[in-house]
Amino acid sequence: MTDRALSVVRSGALTTVQDRGRPGHAHLGVPRSGALDGPAAALANRLVGNRPEAAVLETTLNGCAVRPRSTVTVAVTGAPCHVSVDGRPAAWGAPVRVPAGALLTVGTALSGLRSYVAVSGGIIVEPVLGSRSTDLLSGLGPAPLTNGAVLPLGTPSSLHTRVDTAPQPAPPAELVLRVTLGPRDDWFTPEAVRAFTSRTFQVSSASNRIGLRTEGPVLERRLTGELPSEGMVLGAVQVPPDGRPVVFLADHPTTGGYPVIGVVRETDLPAVAQAVPGTPVRFIEVRRR
Amino acid sequence: MRALPVGDAALLVEVSSGDEARALHAELVRRRAEGSLSVREIVPAARTVLLDGLTDPARLAAELTASEIPSAPPRAREVVELPVRYDGPDLADVAAHWGVSPEEVARIHAGTEFTVAFCGFAPGFGYLTGLPARYDVPRRATPRTAVPAGSVALAGPYTGVYPRSSPGGWQLIGTTDAVLWDHARVPAALLSPGTRVRFVGAA
């Protein structure tokens, strides 16, 4: 092993390696995967001079701690948190130099849910179908981080970043998600469709990288039969038999047999990645572009 | 044929049978290969084909509903043979359901030519059709928490092979040593939509 590597000292609740995922294989049952908050991951890469497709770490709720074997530049974006290097406070949302052997600590999210840690050179675990992303539905890609794991790092690009800080959206106090209805809104009662686009739901603690689960209004079906399995898109709002809508995120199954009442605009999904359990959620109907 | 818009960049094209879905899928794959269709994902399923990553779904919807789609799917030339031992724990239940002996289940299953209608559930998991409708079986009332990799299983009109150990509610009739999914192999999936499959019984 070269000395360009990162040792995992504290893996946190769930920290995974993520890049832009592996779209294009859905017909084989392969989810797209990739960073849930794509803009935050891209910004972290930009701050350390990486290409946008470089793999980063995605933490969940309580951060992580890693020790690089060589001196690197890192940037922590996404959910705001305390960042420190060998116990000394360092900047969040800006490039930070971490000397060889020093401990980088990414703290618990102060708001939001997922922080992104880019390291100069990127994480270069073996790609699977063109991506280094961990897919929690199918098990493709590297396993989630464990204490003591070692992640290989690439060679930093000679391109120097000109950005040293950048504005980031605050994690949402309320999620307002624009949806287009269909393709299966006709499987629900008119009251259920109205409730879907007018009532307030809450983010369920059972949410994960596969889907944002909701609590609140139960959407009643008009048709009770079984829908033959059909292809699913990112952002699809599927309604299982319990009537509680689920918004499909990056690790969603490629086909499914529960009706999709609507689809959330892709540009609204990064905010979904940062919504903590209990956050109010509203779905606003918009016209198709 | 009905083309339902899905979000801003996808279309769900609905047809009336599994054969039509396979024919439509083959035609769309052909159009993409010749360069007349630009799309990120073409995902066939039981009665639909999903097209995702389109720039103008409304235009494509109009085009598709106005165009001639061959009604019968072209047959793939090659047949993938999967060696199988008919030793599954649900073989007797399936035999009872079919009203035949377990040996007869094995004979009928191995005597059928299957086609991968679509994939899903897990990377490399194909939904294989080919058995006559009278051999449809229900899922198990209680799903197993762990079905071993290589299990050959039935549910509804489909046969499937579990690429890796996972929970599952299908009726297990046999076991294969074939490697359905290996991401280090090209292609990673042994079965993809349209592949013809035969199960070859072994003692």
Automatic annotation (TrEMBL), chain A:
SUPFAM superfamilies hit by this protein: Cyclophilin-like (SSF50891)
GO function term, MF aspect, one: hydrolase activity
Top-rank taxon, per record: Bacteria
UniProtKB keywords: ATP-binding, Hydrolase, Nucleotide-binding
InterPro entries tied to this protein: CT_A_B, Cyclophilin-like_dom_sf, PxpC
Residues in Carboxyltransferase domain copies: 27-289
SMART domains linked to this entry: AHS2 (SM00797)
Family matches, as PANTHER family: 5-OXOPROLINASE SUBUNIT C
Protein name per UniProt: Allophanate hydrolase
Source taxonomy: Bacteria, Bacillati, Actinomycetota, Actinomycetes, Kitasatosporales
TrEMBL record, chain B:
UniProt entry tagged with the keyword Transcription: no
Keywords, comma-separated and alphabetical: ATP-binding, Hydrolase, Nucleotide-binding
GO molecular function, one term: ATP binding
Taxonomic superkingdom: Bacteria
Domain Carboxyltransferase per the UniProt entry, residue ranges: 1-191
Pfam families in UniProt: CT_C_D (PF02682)
Plastid among keywords: no
Database matches in SUPFAM superfamilies: Cyclophilin-like
Protein name as it appears in the record: Allophanate hydrolase
Biological source species: Streptomyces canus
Top-level taxonomy: Bacteria, Bacillati, Actinomycetota, Actinomycetes, Kitasatosporales
